Fold:
Amino acid sequence: PYWRMQDEHQYFEKEAGRPADKIKQIRAFIAAAPQDENTGNLLSYLSELEKDVNGKKYGLVFEEHREEIDEVLDTHTPVLTEEADLFIDHGGQMNFLIEGDNLASLKLLEKTHKGKIDLIYIDPPYNTGASNWIYDNDYVDGNDLFKHSKWLSMMQSRLTLAKNLLTDKGVLICAIDENESATLRLLLDDIFGADYEYNCITIIHNPRGIQGKNFSYTNEFAYFVIPKGDKIIGKRHLSDDEIYWSPLRNWGSESLRTDARNCFYPIIVKDDKIIGFGDVSPNDYHPKKNELLEDGSIAVYPIDAKGVERKWRYARQSVEEILGYLAVKKTRGIYDIDLGKTFGTYKTVWSDPKYDANGYGKQLLNSILPNCSFDFPKSLWNVHDCLYSVVAKKSDATILDFFAGSGTTGHAVMKLNAEDGGTRRFILCTNNENGICRDVTYERIRRVIDKEDYAASLKYYKVDYVPISDRMYYEYADELLRHIRELVELENGINFTGNEEIAIVLTEDELAAFIADKDRFAKCRRLYMGHDLLPDEEQEAALFQNKIDVSIIPDYYYRDLQEG
Structure:
């Protein structure tokens, strides 16, 4: 039939345009041309290209782009230099802010924190086409034909490194909007694979809506990438209107002691608060109402308003475990006990008004930094609750944000620690475009620490570069040695400057000078020593007698350069 002929014609037209067929045509053309070294190289390249095209049947395919930072890293190695004048010494944990391209920062963190990060939270550029992020010194706008490929290339290189930093139970949270949500999901799957599960959370961050052509956008998304099979996401605090309260007494008819003897006991109440639990009542004791005790407290039994005895829903040996879920209820002078769990599971749609990026993002930032021009800061509570869901029970977690922006993640970590006494630490990475790192990220952290009196300290590092192309390792090794201190501080969360209890030595002369300085030597408790230093017997004895713990600085910081 005519329609079948038309379909077949369209099919063959389509098949002729497939990349695999185009490659065959190009190969035939090259094979027919005069052969030389160039044509041989082209045929070899086509074979590799054919493998790529034929090998990937499903997944994310995009035009990969190289960034300016890729060119820099081809010929240079990144190092860290401290901005000592910006050090914040306010007790607590040592946190770090790294100024520079985050790809370079991630390569440095791979040396110090491989497999050590508990949680990565990032809020990368949303690629809206509104010239809100820069690629190779040019804004990517809606007219850029490669805007998706550039965004995916940028994210792929960074997420691949980020995965290596996570612990076995480490979690990645990535915020995004509708412009790249679908491509991000495929990219995450490509990088993290089948060993992880992917949860997409919808967060109402702008309840007023941002008007699009057809809809007003009120939400963004957060992808939670979690090791498969692990129960990592904890419980969330419920607001007062979410808590369902019900009697601790058992429902139904009168209960017999033979049903569950350990469920008959008094709960001791004073000043409308539970202060303890009595012993299980004897079988022959059946009170008909609450009892007033000698100290003025009340013994509340599982008796309803009609005087019918029922058992408590939790036995005496386990009721203290749920004390935090119990509340005293008083009706017409009669005390009762209600049960209401103040924690619940996280839902896939988060709509708390505190996630509003205007009131708890922009306005909050302006209250800290008046007239700050930073665009689209996250709600503090949005980030706080994302972090809390993962590290509520891991009070010593290390949290990384390599798209740090205005520093909301650092602010949220300090707030979490203040709430529960935790010792979590953060590492923030951002470039200094328009002075953001120095004037916004750092300044926000400094002012929040000062205003809230948070027990937290901060070191400020800048990424520098040491040229390595056309040079042997020994030609620039001494230059790298001058930046080892920062890597040791970063890896161990410590501060050498002005700290008499720790010291670092990298050369034989430094070791000899350290031991000869009697005052400094006597106060030191831990010495970080270069891996290639060999103390003599006298130096070994002095270190031992002074009870100084020696930590050997690893050689993996620049091993790849030595081997190359």
Q: What stands out?
A: The longest strand covers residues 456-467.
